[in-house]
Amino acid sequence: MTTAHRASGEARPGGRTARTRQAVLAAVFEELGHGGPAALSMERVAQRSGIHLATLYRRWRCAEGLVCDLLNGLSADVPLPDTGTLPGDLRALARSIGAFYADERIRSLIEAVVSAAARDPQAATVLRDFFSERLTLAGQMVVRAVERGELPPDTDPEAVMAALGAPFYYRILIARGPVDAALAESTATAVWVAARAGAYRRTEPHNGAPRDGR
Amino acid sequence: MTTAHRASGEARPGGRTARTRQAVLAAVFEELGHGGPAALSMERVAQRSGIHLATLYRRWRCAEGLVCDLLNGLSADVPLPDTGTLPGDLRALARSIGAFYADERIRSLIEAVVSAAARDPQAATVLRDFFSERLTLAGQMVVRAVERGELPPDTDPEAVMAALGAPFYYRILIARGPVDAALAESTATAVWVAARAGAYRRTEPHNGAPRDGR
DNA sequence: AGACTAACGCGAGCAACTTCGCGTTAGTTC
DNA sequence: GAACTAACGCGAAGTTGCTCGCGTTAGTCT
């Protein structure tokens, strides 16, 4: 991987390099709030940040690199709850995600990164790795639930967390509407009920049919 | 809306216009299979289709217009089942969707359209309207289920269908993996169980907490 | 404090993408 | 079948986006 698309960790963390990076990423974030991903051009970021255009191309190679770098700075902004029960955890996490994506700039960033991934293989890797890591972390919530006996022992933690996230990204990328509280509540309820029923077990129920169970 | 991004319906449907459109859209589809959305350029489509570059720009204005036009041609490729029970319908539809997205060119097309929507407001409108329409149609399946008494009467049909689709788009756009049969089965089961439990009711359960119900 | 190195500013230059004007071809109409 | 019109082919011109070389500045090391 070249200098573009890398995580953080500059050679000289405390100096001018970090300062310009800060200025540029802040400018990208602001630009995302003014017209969404469509308005994001290297030229405008250069003007807003006060950093020269050539410098942007040198360090980030293209606009895709910019949004990828910004994404990686967001890692810890959605806290992972531990309420003691899985339905409680799911609801808390769903609400956090909902609150997170209430900010249009964050939605635009997701849009921009997904769009970047469609054009640039490096951006695709960054995107996949970012969410894969988050999924594994959040999966601990499910692992605890299995240990407490709330879920079938062969439940796939990452499948559960993917199911929790999916409706939000559908709303953002496909339905293209705002993320509201109702979506968070609905999703939390749905995932909890489905997980308890064994929908996310690694080995599907042997009969192969959706279990009725009424 | 200009000539670009429009649905079908040419002024001279049976002539050269339709023939070139066919050639161009076929070329776009083939290109999507050779390197994904990143490889899609006006130049390459022109070469593959044998249609002159200037003609592409005249009729579709840009690459975004191309993929939008292609998307609209896919409307009827996923059949809507009517098996007599909602779990049966959900499973059949999930399998159809899974089979549909097993084709990498279709996945690339979705990626390309979502990416286009991030940059071009007209493409965003096409994308939203396309899925909105499909969602309403598929929602009839849920309406029938409500009439049969399988679901709470205030269940939101479109919310159910969005929940059925969401995991596939998460897989394609975020996790960036192949769509397999396990995903279809898991999703069908999850949505059925969740819908039956009232997760997709228009008015959330009054206590506001995920219903435990054990 | 002075030498050293990495990053930045600057403008010119290159390349890719997009558009335009004009002549030609195909399809429609009477 | 002959006039008419819309779409297409073609090449050139125009525009935008990106890169390069060089001089300068900021931060680091001894």
TrEMBL record, chains A, B:
<feature type="DNA-binding region" description="H-T-H motif">
    <location>
        <begin position="41"/>
        <end position="60"/>
    </location>
</feature>
<dbReference type="InterPro" id="IPR011075">
    <property type="entry name" value="TetR_C"/>
</dbReference>
<keyword id="KW-0805">Transcription regulation</keyword>
<dbReference type="Pfam" id="PF16859">
    <property type="entry name" value="TetR_C_11"/>
</dbReference>
<dbReference type="GO" id="GO:0003700">
    <property type="term" value="F:DNA-binding transcription factor activity"/>
</dbReference>
<dbReference type="GO" id="GO:0000976">
    <property type="term" value="F:transcription cis-regulatory region binding"/>
</dbReference>
<keyword id="KW-0238">DNA-binding</keyword>
<feature type="domain" description="HTH tetR-type">
    <location>
        <begin position="18"/>
        <end position="78"/>
    </location>
</feature>
<dbReference type="InterPro" id="IPR050109">
    <property type="entry name" value="HTH-type_TetR-like_transc_reg"/>
</dbReference>
<protein>
    <submittedName>
        <fullName>TetR family transcriptional regulator</fullName>
    </submittedName>
</protein>
<dbReference type="InterPro" id="IPR001647">
    <property type="entry name" value="HTH_TetR"/>
</dbReference>
<dbReference type="InterPro" id="IPR009057">
    <property type="entry name" value="Homeodomain-like_sf"/>
</dbReference>
<dbReference type="InterPro" id="IPR036271">
    <property type="entry name" value="Tet_transcr_reg_TetR-rel_C_sf"/>
</dbReference>
<keyword id="KW-0804">Transcription</keyword>
